UniProtKB/TrEMBL annotation:
Domain Cytosol aminopeptidase: 301-308
UniProt cross-references to SUPFAM superfamilies, sorted A to Z: Macro domain-like, Zn-dependent exopeptidases
Pfam families: Peptidase_M17, Peptidase_M17_N_1
Keywords: Aminopeptidase, Hydrolase, Manganese, Protease
The name this protein goes by in its record: Cytosol aminopeptidase
GO molecular function, one term: aminopeptidase activity
Organism: Roseomonas fluvialis
Annotated family: Belongs to the peptidase M17 family.
Highest rank taxon of the organism: Bacteria
Matching Gene3D superfamilies: Leucine Aminopeptidase, subunit E, domain 1 (3.40.220.10), Zn peptidases (3.40.630.10)
InterPro entries attached to this UniProt entry: Leucine_aapep/pepB (IPR011356), Macro_dom-like (IPR043472), Peptidase_M17_C (IPR000819), Peptidase_M17_N_1 (IPR048816)
CDD domains per UniProt: Peptidase_M17
Amino acid sequence: MLEGLTARAMGALPLYAVRADGLTAFLGDLPAAVASFLRASGFAAKAGDFALLPGADGLAGAVVGLGQEDTPWAFGTLARGLPPGTAWRLAPGPQDPAQATLGWALGAYRPHRHKAAGPSPAVLEISPDAGPALVTAEAICAARDLINAPAADLGPAELAAAAAALAARHGGNCEIVLGDSLDQGFPAVAAVGQGSPRAPRVAVLRWSGSDSGPLIALCGKGVCFDTGGLDLKSAGGMLRMKKDMGGAAVVLAAAEMIMRTNLPVRLLVLIGAVENAISGTAMRPMDVLRTRRGLKVEVGNTDAEGRLVLADLLTFAAEQSPAMIIDCATLTGAARVALGPDLPALFCNDDALAGRLLAAGQAVDDPMWRLPLHDGYDSWLDSPFADLSNVSQKPMAGAVTAALFLRRFVPAGVPWAHLDLYAWNDRTRPGRPEGGEAQCARALHALVAECAEAQATRPTT
């Protein structure tokens, strides 16, 4: 069971949810003394604001504001904000029980691998119709655990094992490619990881919810730690690089939601699990690397390693004739300069797919923002010594040129989207504690669910 949730609690207190435009009516239904107390406390039903309700014997309940919208974040502070160890049940009201459960569970999450548990959170009784929210919360919390794990605990072997364990739990299968097979089949992945004593590998997870469903390919950058290689990062730049496998964690979270909700699709998940380390065997600037697609890439900067990993994954995915390919990666600082930490950058070669992804993210409050694949910058990747360089020589549009690099490995006509994300919360906010975050995972699940529904309702000929 997720922390902060319980199947049943004796003596659970009522938790009321109130929209701002329903506050007057709510106050009118309360005992006069309690209503006066709420008015005096300044409670205005703003999203996430909450207040305890006094009773003759002490605590009679609590009320939380929804504002004007129904998002999970209105409930995101309650597990850690209400009195520790208290138990609560949702009273009938305007709230969506699934949204409430999701926000509560995501706000209750704390990493415990190397930190003693603090005070017990308040717990919420799970409502009968909150099942999908539990699936989502469990998948996101599992992804957070992966991202928050120190690199000493989570290397390429452990990340690939997480993919294999996920497949085993839900009736899929997972092949781990390493050694000579990796050198031959995924040479760019092998090159990125060759400087580390922890051998690189690729996890190839396959699952089917329908033999006739569309094939959805998800590719995740799984750089378990990124020193920058011989183009070494600064101390500050290296500080959070345990999260450089955040793209892999996101696609595993999305895959878990897809499998557990048994969507009628075929799923291919590719995880490039490597460590970008420094040693006598590490790749060097101006080395020329082979790729699975046959293109030769000059290493303009060893710290632009994630796109090399994804290049081979995208090529393999395209060979399987998917309906779409989506990759997720903590790829560029330039995307964060442009959009900040909360808005992943979306690049897409298909307007219809881009529109569906943006709509899916908006629907589940998991947003992203589209940036252009500007053809005019494509020549910035030219190299005099190879088919292309892994970086542009111009200090501008870094997120765009990274996406253009990836596009070279996606055949024309294959719908493809690239999500350049942060995978981290710099500070604690409602439902989003400081640390690893599975950005875009809920949006990807919503997109695949929408695709499956569209496929099921399409008329047959």
